[in-house]
Amino acid sequence: MGSGCPFSVPPGRLWLASLPEAECETVLQRITREQRTPYTVTDIASLMEKIAQVRRQGYATIEQEFEIGMLVLAVPLTDREGTWWGALSLTSHQSRTSLEALCRDHLDLLYSAQAMLVG
């Protein structure tokens, strides 16, 4: 998942957010946290804060953390018991939209698709 760095892409952050906090931190300690761009967050404490935000809001975003210009919005896909099994994401480029506009214009669409996929 996430080209070997699940911490820097929304589907990976959704997966990490689905784990118990201690397990999430253990995963972050064990993986290589590559600095892919100047915006990539690699510090464990900062990542744990971002993952806590994902848990609170129910979706994940990144802005240029994986690739310069890349904006990504993702919602989790879970089974009926709430077990995470995937994510549905939308990627755009900073030259076309802002992260705020991406969320405003497409989050409801992703949630609608999520509802159809997980029933």
TrEMBL record:
Domain of life, per lineage: Bacteria
Domain IclR-ED, chain residue ranges per copy: 1-119
SUPFAM superfamilies: GAF domain-like
GO biological process annotation, one example: negative regulation of DNA-templated transcription
Any GO molecular function: DNA-binding transcription factor activity
InterPro entries reported in the protein's UniProt record: GAF-like_dom_sf, HTH_MetabolicPath_Reg, Tscrpt_reg_IclR_C
Protein name: IclR-ED domain-containing protein
